[in-house]
Amino acid sequence: MKAPQSAPLLVWYDRHHRDLPWRISPSAAKRGVKPDPYYIWMSEVMLQQTTVAAVKAYFAKFIARWPTVKDLAGAPSEDVMAAWAGLGYYARARNLKKCAEAVAFEHGGVFPDTEEGLRALPGIGDYTSAAVAAIAFNRPAAVMDGNVERVISRLYAIEAPLPGSKPQMKAKVAELTPVDRPGDFAQAMMDLGATICTPKRPACALCPFNDVCVALASDEPERFPVKAAKKAKPVRLGAAFIAVDRDGRLLLRKRVETGLLGGMTEVPTTDWTSRQDGETGSEAAPFPSDWQAAGTISHVFTHFELRLSIFRSGPIDRPAGDHGFWVPVTELDGEALPTVMKKAIAAAIPTAFSTLKG
């Protein structure tokens, strides 16, 4: 079987590329239109462990509110976190703000145009530096996300399981990446994995690599990529407390800046972490009141599952002491509430949010 080449993939990409709001199409590129590094960087950060469908609306919101990296750098951190709420993996939002500040204040608002320069920025690792270098600056960088891993593992029938096989896969991507169109090649590989070389029932008959794909030749593309056996996620327990005063305001507080959900807004909860349970009863409430059980919710984080017992009290007179801050239930959409906290609130106040995903 002959070795794969990039040319057939690029021909396919020219005809079948996805139209995405941060992307320059092949025809526009031929006319000399250049990608905006700010757009590419932001989209790549948002797309980490998140779908294109989910990212589109967030990307549009961020660009409308902060059109340039200098605008984002000058924005209050709480506004950025609030705009990010619901997109998940909140360390990305904190790093987004830090990186914008570094580009704006240390690089004059201009992104470095090499992998090395990009990797030196806060929150940018190997994948993002390669993606931005290739797509924004047409550098011959080997870009490998989950879609590319799937394509490469099938193309070469790589038997070693992930994540240990990543260096082998990246070397194959580097071999295939053309010098003249590395950005288009990176996006083409992503599109191929997203639309043709899908996890289940791949459309191999339409694939530009179907005459050189080793997995297809052995009629077992769905067996790849091979993955190491998953370990069961631990389950952590805790409680959350939904207090509403007589003016229809909900008690909230801000989490510490570091760690899980750092800097985000929350309802009062017990001291659960990814490594330990918190208390689960109403006796752990932030102040004495007539706390009523309102069910339980669960939320899956990357490394553990959290199950919270929900308690509600209200309408109440505000208790003495500094317990946090009070926000009208009708204005919760403006707060930096992660999905797990929205679930907790919705369990006690079903009408608090018009839509709730996850």
What does this entry look like structurally?
With 358 residues, the chain is an alpha+beta fold. 38% of the residues lie in helices and 12% in strands. It contains 14 helices and six strands. The strands form two sheets. The chain has a three-stranded mixed β-sheet with strand order 1-5-4. It has a three-stranded antiparallel β-sheet with strand order 3-2-6, with no helix packed on it. A hairpin with a 4-residue loop joins strand 4 and strand 5 (305-316). Helix 3 (37-47) crosses helix 4 and helix 9 (126-137) crosses helix 12 (182-195). The longest helix is centred in the N-terminal third of the chain and has 16 residues, at 91-106. It is globular and about 75 Å long. The two termini are 44 Å apart. The mean pLDDT is 95.
Range of strand content: 5-15%
* Residue windows where pLDDT falls under 50 for at least 5 positions: none
- How far the N terminus sits from the C terminus, by CA atoms, comes to 44 Å
Helix content: 25-40%
Large-scale geometry: globular
